[in-house]
């Protein structure tokens, strides 16, 4: 019985350790991402696909949207992209910012793409933008920063995001066609929530709250079960 009891004790310790390892480590609120003015963004979202994150601030005074999109390329020589589609929540017609690594110690390259169909061809965007740059972050992530002009009085924009394949001599390869890649689109409400198909609103003080509580409930249930086994 001693080996059996030891195994149960090890399982209990492992479950308890997971309780004190916060699930919020994978949420946007833990990322130290600042705007061009070196201030935090007003809102951040854990996007529902591709382990991606969006930090943003909407300025109704000048109808501008400042964003920082954070994601990890699907491979070490891959790319990430965030886009606005003025007409629909589809890739075709998207006005995209795309970034990829440019070598050790160098900042990522970031370019603009006016996407027609599934051809990735560099081009001018249909709206004004400024403060465009990209940064390398911890863990292989890349962040794209930009401020874009949105229509005056707009309550939402169609956003599309993606992580893609290899980049060879500046030529961008296609992205995978798995369900997460095909579903990475949503309506971004400029008041701080997403529409159908998107993730929930995350402000820095509340991001990850539900995830933490779900994990706590599951692990607590396992501990209670193990305690019952010890007793009987």
TrEMBL record:
Residues 50-164 form the DOMON domain. Its main location: membrane. Keywords: Electron transport, Membrane, Signal, Transport. Pfam families: DUF568. GO terms for cellular component: membrane. Residues 1-25 form the signal peptide. PROSITE patterns: DOMON (PS50836). It comes from the Eukaryota. It is found in: Membrane. PANTHER family: CYTOCHROME B561 AND DOMON DOMAIN-CONTAINING PROTEIN, DOMON DOMAIN-CONTAINING PROTEIN. This is Auxin-induced in root cultures protein 12. It comes from Raphanus sativus. The gene is LOC108813263.
